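I have been asked to look over a protein record a colleague put together. Alongside the sequence sits a line of tokens, each denoting a local backbone shape. Please read both lines and tell me whether the tokens look consistent with the sequence. Take the sequence as given and treat only the tokens as open to question. I have pasted the whole thing underneath without changing anything:
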Amino acid sequence: MTRNWSGPGSGSSKDTPPRELAHAVRAVAAGNVMLAPTVTKQIVTAYAARRPAKAREARERLAGLTDREGAATRALARGLSNAEIGRELRLTETTVKAHISRSLTKLNLTNRVQLAILVHDAGLADEGAPGDG
């Protein structure tokens, strides 16, 4: 049974698998902040909604990504974990991490939240989602 937990640096939901929960506990113990993908998506959506429209600029920045980097980045912006992105795109988790890392480097960003906000600013968060035709 997975339990809901909270405390400094936490933002996990009650449906977090035990393996991810253990990873989050180790990360928080190391001084990092871990948020469940659903919490990250809520934060990004709320933040992006308050920002002035910068869609063109954001799209121009994202245009420098490869197709796979773009697909992984858009999936990340929808709140998916690396494992979920890998399943959706049929990639290994290591490959997903490489795509996200290269995207961060190319865009001169330092973390996944900044990357997700840029995708939301561009209006591309739901593009390429399953069922998006």
